[in-house]
């Protein structure tokens, strides 16, 4: 449409596929940006001047955007004058920010991991003598979380940096592996229970005092089988299997709680920082 003042209005539908540079370091709490550029192919800004409409949001969606894995987070537009050898070109930039839907990954990855770790802690309450049952429980928990981790990773692009879900899965594996280490310590401590103890063949006689009443030293006159009583503090007698299980049943959940708070606080704050950087960076 041509107006009397020379303004030309062109209205037509365009379907394009724009590039999106993926940064999965915060996955699945990530935001992704797609960048589109509109410019003239042959004419510089002395011949064709391009600008957005003088309104607050020149680019907006007419209908709600529904995607299976993302929500539309923000749309920003700005004008850039880019120098070329043939002159200056007007470029109209559009930044579309998408926020990943987190609930699917929470139900498929995080929630089963919680349940697997909680099941591995049941072994603390089975008693130190239930070694076969505790071994089967710990190994099955470790195999389950390894299979789950591989099932999630095969659907993601291969990247050379650590993602947020990698930190979660590796830490969860570490907690279950430490449960098996605790079981190995318990098994080592109860391995000799039920076996007959060896008795000494030579009788022991109490040792006399090293100083005689007359003041003479008689320590070289002790018999060969003399046994001097020794009062040493034995740490192994204090660390019983029951006490180790009781200590582990408190420390493992407490450590996992601290890890959860650190993990979610860090990555949620990082997501907020990324969103602010994307919005502010698109206006500069």
UniProtKB/TrEMBL annotation:
One of its GO terms (cellular component) is plasma membrane. Residues 110-199 form the Neurotransmitter-gated ion-channel transmembrane domain. GO terms for molecular function: extracellular ligand-gated monoatomic ion channel activity; transmembrane signaling receptor activity. Residues 2-101 form the Neurotransmitter-gated ion-channel ligand-binding domain. The chain crosses the membrane at residues 102-124, 136-153, 165-190, 250-268. The lineage of its organism: Eukaryota, Metazoa, Ecdysozoa, Nematoda, Chromadorea. Coiled coil: none annotated. This is Neurotransmitter-gated ion-channel ligand-binding domain-containing protein. Residues 196-216 are annotated as: Disordered. InterPro entries: GABAA/Glycine_rcpt (IPR006028), Neur_chan_lig-bd (IPR006202), Neur_chan_lig-bd_sf (IPR036734), Neur_channel (IPR006201), Neuro-gated_channel_TM_sf (IPR036719), Neuro_actylchol_rec (IPR038050), Neurotrans-gated_channel_TM (IPR006029), Neurotransmitter_ion_chnl_CS (IPR018000). SUPFAM superfamilies: Neurotransmitter-gated ion-channel transmembrane pore (SSF90112), Nicotinic receptor ligand binding domain-like (SSF63712). It is found in: Cell membrane; Membrane. Keywords: Cell membrane, Ion channel, Ion transport, Membrane, Signal, Transmembrane, Transmembrane helix, Transport. Its main location: membrane. It comes from the Eukaryota. Signal peptide: none annotated. CDD domains: LGIC_TM_anion. It comes from Diploscapter pachys. Pfam families: Neur_chan_LBD, Neur_chan_memb. It is a multi-pass membrane protein.
């Amino acid at each position: 449409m041509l107006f009397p003042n020379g303004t030309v209005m062109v209205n037509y539908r365009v379907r394009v596929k724009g590039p999106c540079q993926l940064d999965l370091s915060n996955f699945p709490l990530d935001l992704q940006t797609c960048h589109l550029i509109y410019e003239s192919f042959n004419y510089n800004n002395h011949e064709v001047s391009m600008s957005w409409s003088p309104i607050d949001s020149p680019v907006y969606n007419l209908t709600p955007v529904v995607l299976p894995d993302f929500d539309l987070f923000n749309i920003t537009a700005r004008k850039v004058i880019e120098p070329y050898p043939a002159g200056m070109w007007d470029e109209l930039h559009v930044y579309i920010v998408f926020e990943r839907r987190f609930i699917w990954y929470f139900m498929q990855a995080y929630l089963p991991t919680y349940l697997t770790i909680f099941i591995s802690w049941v072994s603390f309450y089975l008693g130190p003598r239930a070694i076969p049952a505790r071994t089967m429980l710990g190994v099955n928990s470790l195999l389950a979380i390894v299979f789950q981790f591989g099932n999630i990773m095969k659907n993601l692009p291969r990247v050379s940096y650590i993602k947020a879900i990698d930190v979660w899965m590796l830490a969860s594996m570490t907690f279950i592996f430490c449960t098996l280490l605790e079981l190995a310590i318990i098994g080592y401590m109860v391995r000799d229970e039920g076996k007959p103890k060896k008795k000494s063949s030579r009788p022991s006689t109490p040792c006399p005092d090293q100083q005689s009443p007359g003041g003479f030293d008689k320590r070289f006159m002790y018999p060969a089988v003399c046994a001097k009583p020794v009062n040493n503090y034995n740490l192994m007698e204090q660390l019983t299997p029951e006490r180790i299980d009781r200590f582990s049943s408190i420390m493992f959940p407490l450590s996992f709680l601290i890890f959860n708070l650190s993990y979610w606080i860090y990555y949620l704050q990082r997501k907020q920082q990324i969103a602010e950087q994307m919005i502010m960076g698109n206006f500069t």
